[in-house]
Write a structure and sequence with these properties.
Helix content: 55-70%
Number of strands: 0
Amino acid sequence: MKRQPTSATARIDLEITPETRARFNAIHKNLGFKTKPETFEALVFSITAKDILRPDVVARIERKLDEAIKILDTVL
């Protein structure tokens, strides 16, 4: 039985090689998202953000995220 999409979702079928599927699964595992759609969305956002955001803005965001992670590491 095919999975029925929930409201506000759409199903996308992709034809990919087994190697591509293995790479995606490895990325999904390493990024730690709960679902594969979340991983896919993050990848799409990452690709589009590189075209939209200036490199200095991306670097600043990355620095802030690194700082936040260090703070969380000390608290937790």
